[in-house]
Amino acid sequence: MTISKGEVWGEPGRLPRHGVVVRSDAEARAIVTAARRAGEPIPPLGLLGGDLCRTVGGTGDEDRLRSDSATLLPVDLGAVLVDGRLHWFVAHLVVRRSWWRGRVVAAMNAQYLGVWDVVPRGHPNDGRLDVLDADLSFDERLQVRSRLKAGTHLPHPRIKERHVTALQLDLERPTPIYLDGQDIGPATTLSIRVEPDALTCVV
């Protein structure tokens, strides 16, 4: 069950024997994708690095994952139908041709994208994705970029914010799609949704 305001999130628990240690969002996505394509349960993920790991307070200490100090966390998963083919993402989906020109859309399950604090009030187990959608001028991009590390870029009159369980995106022309930092190629039609509580993560 997704977290509600004021509730304690997670419980003490070690990484199970069948769990998989991952050091990046891309590694986590590969494990999720392999399990889903095979029709198998997604194994628990021991997080050692990546934006999702940082969001949930991971320390990068592998010994901790199998100790009494470890914490088991239910975490949502992003799913997207890209021009008819289903994909998944653990941290974020980004639609962009460039950071410096054109429309940029980010669907965030994690709070961070690299060094940027993209959705300071986001939570990876609230049953929603935090979506930012903008097409800014060059000067506006410079201003936003200077504030992203601190997470003070929001609210912004030219950045549309949405908190959604599902979203349909129809792009004017094929645009590169990045899932957990990996370019999966250009697309024009995306059907994005959240899968609540789909992951068990250990930190």
Protein model, in words:
With 203 residues, the chain is an alpha+beta fold. The chain has four helices and 13 strands. It has helices at residues 25-38, 51-55, 62-65, 138-148; strands at 11-12, 20-22, 45-47, 71-82, 85-89, 92-95, 104-108, 112-113, 116-117, 129-134, 159-164, 166-179, 182-202. Strands 1, 2, 3, 4, 5, 6, 7, 10, 11, 12 and 13 form an eleven-stranded mixed sheet that branches. A two-stranded antiparallel sheet has the order 8-9. The chain is globular and about 50 Å long. The two termini are 19 Å apart.
Topology:
Elements: E1 11-12, E2 20-22, H1 25-38, E3 45-47, H2 51-55, H3 62-65, E4 71-82, E5 85-89, E6 92-95, E7 104-108, E8 112-113, E9 116-117, E10 129-134, H4 138-148, E11 159-164, E12 166-179, E13 182-202
Parallel strand pairs: 2-3, 3-13
Antiparallel strand pairs: 1-4, 4-5, 4-13, 6-7, 6-12, 7-10, 8-9, 10-11, 12-13
Distance between the termini: 19 Å
Radius of gyration: 17 Å
Structural class: alpha+beta
Strand residues, percent: 35-45%
Do you know the CATH topology of the largest domain? Tumour Suppressor Smad4
The whole-number mean of residue pLDDT values reads 95
Largest sheet: 11 strands, mixed
Please write the string of helix (H) and strand (E) elements: EEHEHHEEEEEEEHEEE
Number of helices: 4
Q: pLDDT under 50 segments (min length 5)? A: none
Identify the CATH architecture of the largest domain.
Answer: Sandwich
CATH class of the largest domain: Mainly Beta
Strands, total number: 13
Question: How much helicity do the residues have?
Answer: 10-25%
Global morphology: globular
Whole-number tally of structural domains: 2
